[in-house]
Amino acid sequence: MPDATTATSSLPLTERPRRLRRSAGLRRVARETRLSVDNLIAPLFVKDGITEPEAIDSMPGQYRLPVSHLVKEARELFDLGVPAIALFPAVDDTLKTPDAANALAENGLYPRAICALKEEVPEMLIITDTALDPYSSDGHDGIVAGGEILNDATIHVMTEIAVLHASCGADIIAPSDMMDGRVGAIRHALDAAGFEQTGILSYTAKYASAYYGPFRDALDSAPRQRTDIPEDKRSYQMDPANSDEALRELRLDLEEGADMVMVKPALPYLDVIHRVRQASDVPVAAYNVSGEYAMLHAAAQNGWLELQPTAMEALTAIRRAGADAILTYFAKHAARWLQEG
Ligand code: PBG
């Protein structure tokens, strides 16, 4: 038997894929997918009635920020090269009502936060969310009546929220509610109010996912467990088993005028990102959601996984699947890691 480690004769192979993996330089040249800070969008939480950042237990390293700190954080992110933030309000429980009226308060938390950001960090793109759940005492993304989430009544409120956010200077409105027809209605309302340059990033394929748990902790926005309202969001968010349906939602959103579309969550839905990318001629975003972030942190805290390489691998995989932009709580770290090379 010849000794495998000392054999000298070569196999007659015409292709040796390993040739391109031999050195860092070759791997750089052969790399198909790039992750850049330009691809990153940082979700941030803002809250009234606090003076210091408030840690979110289930999302290590993420905080509910008072407006003053929000502005500082946005500046830091922009200086690191992150081009956009997605803003979410943690609204005081006493301000939550069934009709989510506080969403339309002109001097409410959200309008004040947008104004402060636009004044202090005007170059940073601000993406605002128009769903009702942060303001709803039912914890749903829409108005609930008779045990149902009302589609058209919800859209009516959403169009008003969109115009309010645009008037404060929001660059992009992101409806995350999954009501039918909301993109067209918001586009129409924005245009009628003179905001034809304000963009729409539609949560096109948003799944009824269990991976949103930590986010709902952060905003205390989970559906309230009462017998008179649905206990979950499955009558409007999509069934995790479906992906043809994502293409249907995509077709409607594009017809209604979405400037960008989104798939959410990201990692358990890479196939959907891929299909949506192939079928659309606008930029595709993916939301690397709170549960995806929490999982890696939990494993890292136990010493079971290394945070940096697993997070960067995940973000690269989301890019490889076809996402142009990634909403991710890792944005700030990833921006630093990318700088370090
Ligand atoms: C609400 C909204 C949710 C997220 C973004 N917007 C939660 C939900 O639909 O219940 C989740 C984001 C995350 O988990 O990071 N419209």
Describe the structure.
The mean pLDDT is 96. An 8-stranded parallel β-barrel has the order 1-4-5-8-9-10-11-12, surrounded by 9 helices. It has a two-stranded antiparallel sheet with strand order 6-7. It has one domain: Aldolase class I (TIM Barrel), CATH 3.20.20.70. The chain contains 11 helices and 12 strands. By secondary structure, the protein is an alpha/beta fold. It is 38% helix and 16% strand. The termini are far apart. The longest helix has 18 residues.
List keywords for this structure.
alpha/beta, TIM Barrel, 16% strand, globular
Helix % is 25-40%
Ligands, deduplicated: ligand PBG
Look at the structure and name the CATH superfamily.
Answer: Aldolase class I
Structural domains: how many: 1
Q: For this structure, what is the CATH class?
A: Alpha Beta
The H-and-E topology, N to C, reads as: HEEEHEHEEEHEHEHHEHEHHEH
> What is the correct CATH architecture?
Alpha-Beta Barrel
Secondary structural class: alpha/beta
Radius of gyration: 22 Å
CATH fold type: TIM Barrel
Spatial sequence of strands, sheet with the most strands: 1-4-5-8-9-10-11-12
Q: What does the largest sheet look like?
A: 8 strands, parallel, barrel
List the helices and strands and how they pair.
Elements: H1 24-30, E1 40-47, E2 54-55, E3 63-65, H2 67-79, E4 84-90, H3 109-120, E5 125-129, E6 143-145, E7 148-150, H4 151-168, E8 172-174, H5 182-192, E9 199-206, H6 213-219, H7 244-256, E10 260-264, H8 270-279, E11 284-288, H9 290-301, H10 307-321, E12 325-328, H11 331-340
Parallel strand pairs: 1-3, 1-4, 1-12, 4-5, 5-8, 8-9, 9-10, 10-11, 11-12
Antiparallel strand pairs: 2-3, 6-7
Helix pairs in contact: 2-3, 4-5
The structure holds ligand PBG.
